[in-house]
Write a structure and sequence with these properties.
globular; 12 helices
Length: about 280
């Protein structure tokens, strides 16, 4: 990292060096994601759920395969995220320029996964109602993580945003259960639904005030101003992603209310039969 200039406000504007070392991890994550979706997931569904899987449309098969790769990706990334969150003092003490190799690897995995997922989405379900939101979510995520990983800047905030992946397995399981025709008032479906709603709220919605409070703490300081263009990369994609998450959480709550309503009606009907 070299000093590019010292301006009139008496802070140093840094011109960070470009680090392409983790790009190889992006390529590896891309290939693994593609193999997981197109080879491993397809083989698993054909072996264990042949009849149900093969009666699905091309679109739905894509959802199922994408869901499996997404679950595995989120488990790997979340593990690294929590580990760094509680053990890495470097990025905590210097949220702007602190560097963690584990966080960089995590971001590279995310970029590789998202790039492969964009191809999968466009191959299987580009006509989905959620298509635009998926594309926007992936676009803003790739931009932010690529920048943070390449210049080793704002890795604390990048790692904090990766907390969102903790809710992803439950989101994917809900869709898999739905396609596999699990009873919506059944124990597995309902338990996963509550886990999805709770984890989504805690890791994507409840953390929003804390996240922006941390940005506010450093906003306008010499440390933050020294990051230059990074200020915009940090804030703009974050706002976009949070708006999308709020919209998705609204849909989760609406779905949960429907399930609760269905459970109440089923219980009422059962009580009438017993009477």
């Amino acid at each position: 990292m070299k000093v590019a200039e010292i301006n009139e406000t008496n802070y140093m504007l840094y011109e960070p060096s470009i680090d392409t070392y983790y790009y190889r991890v992006i390529l590896l994550a891309f290939v693994i994601t593609w193999v997981l979706a197109e080879v491993v997931a397809s083989a698993l569904f054909n072996f264990f759920l042949y009849d149900i899987y093969n009666k699905q449309t091309f679109y739905v098969k894509g959802e199922l395969k994408s869901g499996i790769s997404s679950i595995i990706h989120s488990i790997v990334v979340t593990t690294g995220c929590f580990y760094c969150l509680y053990t890495d003092d470097v990025i905590s003490e210097d949220p702007v320029w602190g560097h963690s190799p584990i966080v960089s690897v995590d971001m590279a995995i995310v970029v590789g996964y998202l790039t492969a997922d964009v191809i999968i989405i466009n191959t299987y379900y580009s006509d989905s109602k959620e298509y635009k939101f998926f594309m926007l979510h992936h676009l803003f995520s790739v931009i932010a993580y690529m920048y943070s990983m390449t210049y080793h800047v704002c890795e604390f905030f990048s790692n904090f945003r990766l907390l969102a992946e903790f809710s992803t397995p439950f989101v994917n399981l809900r869709r898999i259960f739905e396609i596999m025709e699990f009873k919506k008032t059944g124990a597995a479906y309902v338990t996963n639904g509550w886990a999805m709603a709770l984890s989504f709220f805690l890791c994507r919605i409840a953390v929003i005030p804390y996240y922006y409070a941390k940005i506010y703490q450093i906003y306008g300081t010499p440390l933050f101003l020294s990051s230059g263009f990074t200020q915009y990369v940090l804030i703009i994609p974050s706002i976009a992603l949070d708006l999308i998450n709020v919209f998705w959480f609204y849909k989760i709550v609406r779905g949960a209310l429907k399930v609760i309503s269905a459970q109440s009606k089923e219980k009422l009907q059962n009580d009438k039969k017993k009477a």
